[in-house]
Design a protein that fits this description.
Structural class: alpha/beta
Strand content: 25-35%
CATH architecture of the largest domain: 3-Layer(bba) Sandwich
CATH class of the largest domain: Alpha Beta
Strand order of the largest sheet: 3-5-4-11-12-13-10-14
Oligomer: single chain
Length: about 400
């Protein structure tokens, strides 16, 4: 597709945030260009895809208006449905809580969202790299040629290392503990619990982070580690920690070590919260670019799509003279800012504990299932806060 020379709104990045922004802007009658560097939307994957069902999402972000695409997506986008989340302590004891969710086929899910945007009227341009962002003038080059396109508003949904954010002065404060590496394998030939999402802790396998096992139905599963580079042991990388977990963990390896690796997935996860500003007079950022993620669980699909919806709506309202573009920053913080900030605070309380197996054993033993669920939702009940503070004080 050859793009037009001008658009009302240019969205960079056709992940969940970008495609949702493009959909909502196009539905409001805006001319929208949705650009992505991938030759095949959703490929390669950069993260896994666990998405809680609507009832849980409403607990997660009770003040948010959910996009319709979070509530309605084809069954073909779902690998498997789970009903339980289980925490496994370093000593092997476990505790969990009920939670309904889908293990998504992110390749199909992301393509579905981009297709919805195109059906709404957005022009989709794939296999195209953005070379320069000069305010709302975008220089691009890719499979369909080199173009310079002018917009009235630019929405950056281009990931943790956002070019749009950098060009507009909306970067986060430097923080080596604020960016996590997610490294995952898709396995076949394994027999894991098909009803539960499992999260494993232990400093020898994921210092300061956790490993996960999520069934994809049948004999397939997604396993991974989320860990900050600042905590890597000497000469270790995320892949080394995942291999150690898969082949050496005393519990998990029993069901994983014979599996065949059919896909490798990796990406950065911004767990340090949002930058100070996410909107200027002509540019917005959403999704990972804006830190729209719950740091306590690493989940960002739902929050990215909520941010994308608000970005698309705000850009359209601005062009129709209904608001200032900068009001977007207030809107998304009102709907999910508290949960994002609280999750970062909890993550910081947990950082030291997760470097000590004895402290993590004590935390999982002490915290109730309902309190665990609250933590995963970015909530910090007073009893949990006191417990975590007491445990941290006990570490000196």
């Amino acid at each position: 597709m050859i793009p037009e020379r001008t658009y009302d709104i240019i969205v960079i990045g056709a992940g969940p945030a970008g495609s949702t922004a493009a959909t909502y802007a196009a539905q409001r009658g805006m001319s929208v260009l949705l650009v992505d560097k991938k030759k095949d939307i959703g490929v390669p994957l950069q993260c896994g895809g666990f998405l809680p069902h609507t009832a849980t999402l409403q607990e997660l972000v009770p003040n948010a208006e959910l996009p319709f695409t979070l509530e309605e997506y084809p069954p073909g986008c779902v690998h498997a449905t789970t009903s339980f989340q289980r925490f496994i302590a370093p000593n092997g004891t476990s505790k969990g809580f009920e939670v309904q969710g889908d293990a998504l086929d992110r390749r199909r899910f992301d393509k579905h969202l981009a297709t919805v945007a195109a059906k709404a009227g957005a022009h989709l341009l794939i296999a195209t790299n953005v070379l320069e962002v000069n305010r709302t003038r975008i220089t691009m080059d890719g499979a369909f040629g080199r173009y310079e396109v002018q917009g009235k508003v630019v929405i950056g949904a281009d990931g943790p290392n956002s070019m749009v954010a950098a060009s507009s002065g909306m970067l986060r404060e430097p923080d080596p503990m604020g960016m996590s590496t997610a490294f995952e394998y898709e396995l076949s030939g394994v027999d894991v619990d098909k009803e539960a999402v499992e999260m494993y802790f232990g400093k020898d396998y994921v210092p300061g982070g956790y490993a996960w096992v999520i069934s994809q139905g049948g004999d397939r599963a997604n396993i991974g580690v989320g860990i900050r580079e600042a905590l890597f042991a000497e000469r270790m990388c995320a892949r080394d920690y995942l291999n150690r977990f898969m082949y050496e963990h005393p519990i998990a390896s029993e069901k994983l070590r014979e599996g065949s690796i059919v896909s490798v997935i990796s990406g950065l996860v911004p767990v340090g919260g949002a930058p100070r500003i996410t909107a200027t007079k002509d540019t917005l950022i959403a999704g990972d670019a804006a830190g729209h993620l719950i740091a306590t669980n690493g989940g960002g699909i739902s929050t990215a799509m909520i941010g994308g919806k608000l970005a698309g709506e705000s850009a359209a309202d601005f062009l129709q003279g209904k608001c200032k573009l900068e009001e977007y920053d207030t809107l998304w913080r009102k709907q999910m800012g508290l949960e994002i900030r609280t999750a970062v605070h909890i993550r910081k309380l947990m950082d030291r504990l997760m470097l000590s197996d004895s402290m993590m054993n004590a935390a999982i033993k002490t915290i109730s299932p309902s309190q665990m669920k609250a933590i995963q939702c970015g909530q910090l009940p007073e009893p949990v806060k006191k417990t975590l503070q007491k445990l941290n004080m006990g570490m000196g």
